[in-house]
Amino acid sequence: GQAQTFTPVVEDSIDFVITGTTTSSHDSVAMFLCAPHGKIEKFPIVGGKFKVTGRQPRHTFIQIGDNAENDLRFIVDETPTSINLVTGEVSGSELQQRFVHCQMRERDIDRVVEPWWDSLGDEEKDRIIDMRGGRLSDATAKDSANFLKYEDFMGDRDALVRQIIRENKDNVIPAYYLYVHHSNLNYEQKREFMREDAPYAHHPAMERPWKAYWGMILQMNITGKTAPDFEAEAPDGTMHRLSEYTGHSQYVLIDFWASWCGPCIASFPFMKEIYATYKDRGLVFLRVSCDKNREAWLKALEKHQLPWTALRNPARKGDACDLYGITGIPAVILIDPDGKVIST
Fold first, then answer.
1. Which helix (H) or strand (E) holds 231?
2. Is 224 exposed, middle or buried (0-12, 13-18, 19+ CB in 10 A)?
3. Secondary structure class of 99 (helix, strand, coil)
């Protein structure tokens, strides 16, 4: 499976044209590759009309937005496309029309929820997010009501995405939705959609979902087994092995992170609370950085004053990230007192 390639064939590049209308008062639309992401190009809006042209490999996903919250994604193909960015009225190939219609179904859900979300204050929004992450210890009845409404919305969104993928297994549309939403799918759902014989299996957008899927399978395979050993560097330059800390009648929590990772840094206050609660109760914390830049790692340790054991294991093939199926950070591995992986 990991031998699959996702590089678009340059010789298969084609010229494309997308014309459209918008009510935006801005002077241009922005176009960029969106799965994976690419650089932004601007095309003028004249009299409410615009024309986007370019050359890309066939079936590349691009996004066009008018800077007035009217954004839609398109599939590069030979058939000229015409679009109204505001209403979603589209003409073009059957595949293009189907893709835009999928997005308009998403907009229908968003239109119901967005007025409610916009009515909330920043603090209320933060409390919902904290509650979702299990970081809100003083939740009120209002917090709970807001949280349930938010969860209902996310559930509807996720269900629609799964339905769209199932309805389009005969084309490349699932590649976009799996690129964006793969982290919201459980193993059974991924196993249903990650098919090596699917028309979308080798699309460049699928590289990230495949890596995440392989990582999930690897983590399932190592759960219940002796934790794979690896070597990592301490701040003083000495080298240490994971096996120095595991199998000594204590739990070991490995937290993979990096100095450049915003979500990792945002987790520090919460992780410090966990550390303070359990450090004297048989839990060893190992903060394993994936930083390739040693100086950036050391500066981050100094800046954030992390009180637990810090090690660095740059992402190189065959090292910690590969051994533990880490395809995104932060990521946490829990090892039991006997040295076996019990949670990933």
1. strand 231-233
2. exposed
3. helix
Q: CA-CA distance, 138 to 25, in Å (whole number)?
A: 44
Q: Which residues contact 208 (CB under 8 A, 6 or more apart)?
A: 36, 179, 182, 327
Kind of pairing between the strands at 49-57 and 341-343: unpaired
CA angle 32, 36, 37 (to 5 degrees): 35
Dihedral sign, CA of 55, 58, 59, 60?
A: negative
- For residue 335, which of 201, 229, 186, 207 has the smallest C-alpha distance? 229
Inter-residue contact 205 to 35 (CB < 8 Å) = yes
Each residue of 189-222: pLDDT tens digit? 999 999 989 999 999 999 999 988 998 999 999 9
Measured in whole angstroms, the distance separating CA 236 from the mean position of its chain's CA atoms is 34
Measured distance CA(337)–CA(207) in Å, rounded: 36
Would you say 100 and 74 are in contact if contact means Cβ atoms under 8 Å apart? yes
Query: Angle 54-57-59 (CA atoms, 0-180°, nearest 5)?
Result: 100
d(CA 287, CA 270): 14
Closest by alpha carbon to 227, among 308, 344, 317? 344
Residue type, 155: G
Helix (H, G, I), strand (E, B) or coil at 102: helix
Write a three-state SS string for 132-199: HCCCCCCCCHHHHHHHHHHHHHHHHHHHHHHHHHHHCCCCCHHHHHHHHHHHHCCHHHHHHHCCCCCC
Q: What are residue 252's DSSP bridge partners?
A: 284, 335
Tens digits of per-residue pLDDT, 94-139? 999 999 999 999 999 998 888 999 999 999 999 998 888 777 788 8
